[in-house]
Amino acid sequence: STLLNMLLLRKRLWNLSSKVQDYLIIGWIGILAEAMKSPHVIQASHAARALANLDRDTVKEKYEDGVYILHPQYRTSQPIKADVLFIHGLLGAAFKTWRQKDHSNMEDKDTNYTECWPKTWLAADCPSLRILSVEYDSNLSDWRSKCPVEDERKSLAYRGRELLTKLKAAGVGDRPVVWIAHSMGGLLVKKMLLDASEDPEMRSVVQNTQGIVFYSVPHSGSRLAEYSVSARFLLFPSVEVKELSKGKIGLSDQLDLLFLCHSVCMSFVHLNCV
Q: Are 180 and 215 spatial neighbours (Cβ–Cβ below 8 Å)?
């Protein structure tokens, strides 16, 4: 009958479309696998994240935009014992913040040079770790006109909620966690942990946090913000800078109480910063 023929045709088209999709995925896997061999850490890491998200057979985690897996970037039978997360600060990035030093071109680099030491050195020393690095946009000033909603999206509260959701999707909280945070990234870590402590679905992130390394984190605010605000007609300080004003950051006492209640040990490396 006509109905039966239509159903058979639909089934054949569905099978054909599924095969085409499989062929497309296989083609992309080859391209991404080749990109992972790139000496440029940004290109290789973007490819590694895409491959991990395609690998639904062995990878249950989802790496959303701004969350990069630095190690392991290939399938491995070695069990992962802990997660180490790198959170950059103001004007930083997922890779450049953790570079060894600046080089003008590839020819100048010696054999020990690394564009991202967590990916190169930490992974070699501690292969049983999963190493993640996150990235978010930040600015010192804001000259351009914008939608008022953008200010809210740049706030510490919004960034913290957004990043916490992404990290949870990546499986952060399923095993012991150590945070390494620079500058404003340290404040972001504090905000995420405080938010996670109040959310039953996120509380495992706090309970599994075993340590935090704060590197040049302005726990009490930064004079940079005061200078920028005083020159606001020239600099148009960004939301991020305004939030760093001295006296406006009240996360330290809350965080100390939080970890005291959960009996979690913390290691601080706090350098004085402007």
A: yes
DSSP 45-90: HHHHHHHHHH-TTT------TTEEEEE--S---SPP-EEEEEE--T
Place of tokens 């249950």: 60
- Amino acid letter, 19: K
User: What phi and psi, each to the nearest 5 degrees, are found at residue 215?
Assistant: -115, 110
Per this entry, what is the length of the chain?
Answer: 274
What ranges make up the beta strands (E) of the chain? Answer: 67-71, 82-87, 129-134, 177-182, 209-215
CB contact burial 16-36 (16+ within 10 A = b; e otherwise): eeeeeeeeeeeeeeeebeebb
Residue 97 to residue 181: CA distance in whole angstroms: 10
What whole-number distance in Å separates Cα of residue 249 and Cα of residue 259? 18
Q: Is 196 helix (H, G, I), strand (E, B) or coil?
A: helix
Q: Three-state DSSP class for 133?
A: strand
Location of structure tokens 């406006």: 248
State the DSSP code for 188. Answer: H
Beta carbons of 59 and 107 less than 8 angstroms apart: no
Per DSSP, helices labelled H in 198-269 are 203-207, 223-230, 232-235, 239-243, 252-262
pLDDT tens, N- to C-terminus, the chain (274 residues):
555 655 565 555 455 444 445 545 567 778 888 888 888 888 889 889 988 888 877 778 999 999 999 999 888 888 999 999 999 988 889 998 998 876 655 555 566 778 899 999 999 999 999 999 999 887 766 665 565 556 556 778 888 899 999 999 999 999 999 999 998 898 899 889 989 988 999 999 999 998 888 888 887 766 655 554 455 544 566 777 677 765 555 555 555 555 545 544 444 544 444 3
Q: Report the C-alpha gap between 122 and 85 in whole angstroms.
A: 12
